[in-house]
Specification:
Elements lengths: L4 E9 L4 E7 L1 H14 L5 E3 L2 E3 L3 H15 L7 H8 E10 L15
Antiparallel strand pairs: 1-2, 1-5, 3-4
């Protein structure tokens, strides 16, 4: 049986703000997929039976930006975030016990 996981991000911005426990949810991931396809961002490639995943940095950064925007914690667009304001993103994935209620996905601390 597949296991449920939860993604949370910690983001450090150029102005010194550090946002912690930013929950990345499915709409953030779907927005990344749509945007990556539209802009032809790097995707996973397999050569000589070895896979490379250059897109993981794009995905983590984009989904963290999307979550911050959704939560009203960041105003500027993707280009400003990715090229200027975002100094570091760390995304943690944890297993979720499906028998326990989830925290509100629209809550994020800063």
């Amino acid at each position: 049986m597949p296991k449920l996981t939860r993604k949370t991000a910690t983001v450090e911005l150029a102005d010194g703000t550090i946002h912690t426990d930013i929950r990345i949810i499915n709409p953030d991931v779907l927005l990344y997929g749509e945007t990556a396809t539209r802009h032809k961002w790097p995707a996973m490639t397999v050569k000589n039976e070895v896979g490379t995943v250059p897109h993981i940095d794009y995905e983590n950064t984009f989904t963290a930006w999307a979550a911050l925007k959704r939560l009203g914690l960041y105003e500027a667009g993707w280009e400003v975030f990715s090229k200027k304001d975002c100094l570091q993103v760390v995304v943690e994935v944890t297993e979720v016990d499906p028998t326990q209620p989830a925290a509100d996905p629209d809550s994020g601390s800063s």
